[in-house]
């Protein structure tokens, strides 16, 4: 059970152990007591006390061994990596919001069987995806490409406009709408063009204020499909956060603003869960933001190409967002609603660090072992204890021990209100 409503206490118990090359270890007993023995005359009384002391010492030693074995069988002690970037969390965190009868940390537990309904029965083909998009298909003549906002090896995002027309009983009206336009470059392969279409379909036909589905598509040119989304003034959330960190562009950005962004992402993810959709790639790079700090979740189309540093191929011919993935997704490629909760914890960490890279000092190929051993990211500077407690609960080893998005939303809204009172 994860103490999501309590402050994280681990940071207050840090002591340095010089015998472990500077590694920091959480310890409840930081005082070493040494007793000096002075030679004295041996009497019958002293012999008696010595014997009693030896017996007590043996009993104490046995008790310590038994306690050590018991503790090791339950969970490892809390630790932090030697550079201070990652905290070792318990394998069985307390979570008052857990509704799953999950009595084991076995990643193959019955929680997976309960979640099978979230997986599609079959993978659609590219032609089937195109058929699905026919109701929002428009002509190329309606689209005007503007400046390039982002560009990768085979992907590109434009600022642009689309002209739409509506008819009433008397006349026809045209309207020019500002949009983002996702497409591919001349270097893109057929597989990459198909991937753009498939991934863009993930949020198609969804309607929620914190979700940004595609508005229109243009598939007239098979070599350059155009995917249109509603324009958001500040664009990609990750870029917005990083720009705010290195410039004075967003001096007014407060903790309350960041929590508000987290609330909106939580609302969007709660809605996706109700639609039986697992995002699989929740991160600030897959969110956009407007001038009023309204945040919307997008699909991950082109994300691998536009943010290559966030994805790694672990020898399975698939680039994955390794440092955002839940342990079950990383090891077994299992994607559940609770896997998205883990990724939300990382996304919240991104918000509080203004777009820093999670686990920056950890080799992606070592992430699985790192997480299995209980290591997690440390509390960011200037991050309230309450928010870090939320992150820590999202990173529970067992999927069933993580909070739901409904509970996360309630907690973040309460905290947002509290921040308003004290400002």
Radius of gyration: 27 Å
Instruction: Outline the low-pLDDT stretches.
Output: 5-42, 73-85, 88-122
Please give the alpha-carbon distance between the first and last residues. 32 Å
What is the CATH H-level superfamily of the largest domain?
Transferase(Phosphotransferase) domain 1
Order of helices and strands: EEHEEHHEEEHEEEHHEEHEEHHHEHH
Question: Beta fraction of the residues?
Answer: 15-25%
What is the multimeric organization of the chains shown? single chain
Structural class of the helix and strand makeup? alpha+beta
Structure summary, number of beta strands: 15
Number of helical segments? 12
GO biological process, one term: axonogenesis
Transmembrane segments: 47-69
Pfam family, one: PK_Tyr_Ser-Thr
Binding site for ATP: 285
Would you kindly provide a brief summary of this structure?
With 423 residues, this protein is an alpha+beta fold.
Verbal overview:
There is one protein chain. With 423 residues, the protein is of the alpha+beta class. The chain has two domains: 110-120 and 235-422, Transferase(Phosphotransferase) domain 1 (Transferase(Phosphotransferase), domain 1); 126-230, Phosphorylase Kinase, domain 1, CATH 3.30.200. The protein has twelve helices and 15 strands. The chain has helices at residues 44-74, 110-114, 126-132, 190-200, 237-246, 255-274, 303-306, 327-332, 337-352, 367-372, 385-394, 405-422, and strands at residues 14-16, 24-26, 79-80, 86-88, 143-151, 155-167, 172-184, 214-218, 226-230, 235-236, 287-289, 295-297, 312-313, 319-320, 375-377. The strands form five sheets. The protein has a five-stranded antiparallel sheet. A three-stranded antiparallel sheet has the order 1-2-3, with no helix packed on it. One of its GO terms (molecular function) is metal ion binding. Residues 82-106 are annotated as: Disordered.
């Amino acid at each position: 059970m994860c103490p999501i409503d309590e402050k994280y206490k681990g940071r207050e118990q840090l002591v340095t152990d010089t015998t472990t090359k500077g590694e920091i270890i959480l310890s409840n007993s930081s005082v070493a007591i040494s007793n000096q023995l002075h030679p004295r005359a041996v009497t019958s009384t002293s012999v008696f006390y010595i014997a009693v002391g030896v017996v007590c010492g043996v009993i104490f030693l046995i008790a310590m061994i038994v306690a050590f074995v018991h503790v090791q069988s339950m969970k490892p002690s809390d630790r932090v990596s030697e550079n201070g970037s990652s905290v070792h969390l318990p394998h069985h965190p307390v979570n008052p919001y857990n509704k799953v009868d999950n009595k084991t940390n076995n990643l193959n537990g019955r929680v997976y069987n309960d979640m099978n309904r979230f997986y599609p029965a079959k993978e659609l083909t590219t032609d089937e995806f195109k058929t699905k998009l026919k109701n929002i298909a428009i002509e190329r003549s309606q689209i005007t490409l503007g400046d390039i906002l982002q560009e990768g090896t085979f992907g590109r995002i434009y600022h642009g406009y689309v002209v739409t027309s509506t008819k009433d009983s008397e006349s026809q009206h045209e309207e020019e709408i500002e949009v983002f336009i996702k497409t591919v470059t001349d270097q893109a392969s057929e597989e990459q063009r198909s991937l753009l279409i498939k991934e863009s379909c993930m949020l198609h036909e969804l309607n929620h204020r914190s979700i940004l589905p595609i508005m229109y598509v243009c598939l007239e040119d098979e070599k350059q499909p155009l995917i249109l989304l509603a324009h958001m003034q500040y664009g990609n959330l990750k870029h917005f956060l990083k720009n705010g960190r290195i410039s004075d562009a967003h001096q007014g950005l407060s903790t309350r603003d960041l929590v508000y962004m987290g609330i909106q992402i939580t609302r969007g993810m709660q809605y996706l869960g109700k639609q039986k959709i697992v995002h699989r790639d929740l991160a600030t790079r897959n969110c956009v933001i407007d001038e009023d700090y309204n945040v919307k979740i997008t699909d991950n189309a082109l994300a691998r190409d536009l943010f290559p540093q966030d994805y790694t191929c672990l020898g399975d011919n698939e680039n994955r967002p390794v440092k955002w993935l839940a342990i079950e997704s990383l090891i077994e490629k299992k994607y559940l609603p609770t896997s998205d909760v883990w990724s939300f914890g990382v996304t919240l960490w991104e918000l509080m660090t203004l777009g820093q890279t999670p686990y920056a000092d950890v080799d992606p190929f070592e992430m699985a072992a790192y997480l299995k051993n209980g290591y997690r990211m440390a509390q960011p500077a200037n991050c309230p204890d309450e928010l870090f407690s939320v992150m820590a609960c999202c990173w529970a080893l067992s999927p069933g021990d993580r909070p739901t998005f409904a509970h996360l939303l309630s907690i973040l809204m309460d905290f947002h209100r509290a921040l308003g009172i004290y400002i």
